[in-house]
Amino acid sequence: MVNYTLAGGRVENEQLLVRSDTGDICIRSPLDRETVPYLELPVIATDRGGLSTIAIVGIQVTDVNDNRPIFKPQRYNVTLRNDDVTRSSILKLVATDLDVSVFGHVTYHISSGNEDEIFQIDRNTGELHVARPGLLSRLSLHHINVTATDAAGLKSIVDAEVKVTVSTAEHRIATCEKPRYTVSVKENIPQNSVVSGVNSTTASSSSTGYLHTGVNLAGLLERRYNPRPANASETYSTRGVIALA
């Protein structure tokens, strides 16, 4: 007669067990590929005389469609000027699905708030476009919801919320000098060390003031309103500092 055990003389671990009389390996608790995609365990077979041998058993956990797409982030905000709208992408939404292969492929569609079909979304990339620029200025604020669906039909539990603010030509939008900043930072640098800066400019012909947009020391977007003389028109430049909090 042969007795089967796992390493250490046990017959089970958190997820699997081995039957000591037959050597059958059984599931002890549910397996989740997204958590542990592969398991490996040594099985020891010992005869009555005490002689033993060992075999390594590898178990590959295959995927089933048990996850829904999740938007990260779930809320999006974008501001457009009504006199400078093109059909190019204004925003890219991102939803991820922890499943793999076909189960992890996500498509996007606008589920509400687009009754006049002003906006259009690329179902594969999640890029949002203005399809009918001439209708954009009908409202100063548009709210639309976007749903993500995987290849098996599972939909996101929570839709993405997109808020599109339409600005007039008199109130210009703050613009960063560069769309992307890349810096190298040494490890173990002191707290509150400055690691980068972001430059932005905004212009306005409004008689009430200008909008200051920058990045505060915690790395968060900071806005403050500064009054200026009536009928003045200027471009205001500011620099935000990013530091380790």
UniProtKB/TrEMBL annotation:
Gene3D superfamilies: Cadherins. It is found in: Membrane. Residues 2-71, 72-181 form the Cadherin domain. SMART domains: CA (SM00112). It comes from the Eukaryota. GO terms for biological process: homophilic cell adhesion via plasma membrane adhesion molecules. The keyword NADP does not apply. One of its GO terms (molecular function) is calcium ion binding. GO terms for cellular component: cell-cell junction; plasma membrane. Keywords: Calcium, Cell adhesion, Membrane, Repeat, Transmembrane, Transmembrane helix. PANTHER family: DACHSOUS CADHERIN RELATED 2 (PTHR24025:SF20), DESMOGLEIN FAMILY MEMBER (PTHR24025). This is Protein dachsous. It comes from Acromyrmex echinatior.
